[in-house]
Structures are given as C-alpha cells and as structure tokens.
Specification:
This protein is an alpha+beta fold and 88 residues long. The chain contains 4 helices and 3 strands. The N and C termini lie far apart (35 Å). The model has no long low-confidence stretch (mean pLDDT 80).
Length: 88
C-alpha cells in the first residue's frame, strides 16, 4: 500500500471522520477540524454550502479527491430534511 493510501486511511479512521460517517449532525468546529486535517495532509477537497430553500434544508457538501477517478462525497444536512445536494 502506498504511503498516501496509508495516510489517507489513518485520516479516515480519526474520530472526526467517523462522526461525519455516522451522524448527519455536525458542528462548525468539527467541520473546521476536518478542513484543517485535509489541508495538513495536502488532500484536495471542495466545500459547498447551501443556505436552503423553501423546499430543501440548509446543507454542506464536502468532496474529497483521492485520485482522478476516486472522490468521496459527504452531504451534511444542517436541519431535518433533504438538502439541495441530495435533490440533485
């Protein structure tokens, strides 16, 4: 296994990523911690925020780029219901 893969797997096994995977309720400080970890590990990512609409709840979409053909996407709802990112 390549060094990058080992580092990425250890990053995914941190408590903060486990929280993202197991819960849709994420605090802003935890999201900032995720970004700090990704930056420190030099892993490219995109973060999009939608304040919501009358039909969709506010949400965050986090895309982590592993390689040109592999991307991890996390959709985090900030309220009950579907976000704009779920509907697309």
């Amino acid at each position: 296994m390549a060094t990058f893969e080992k580092e990425f797997l250890s990053l995914l096994s941190t408590d903060i990523f486990k929280k993202i995977l197991s819960s849709s309720n994420l605090q802003l400080a935890q999201l900032n911690a995720v970004q700090a970890l990704l930056i420190k590990a030099r892993i490219p990512y995109d973060l999009r925020y939608s304040p919501g609409t009358r039909r969709a709840s506010p949400g965050i979409d986090l895309s982590i780029y592993i390689n040109p053909s592999t991307t991890l996407n996390f959709t985090i709802s900030l309220e009950n219901g579907q976000t704009v990112f779920d509907i697309q």
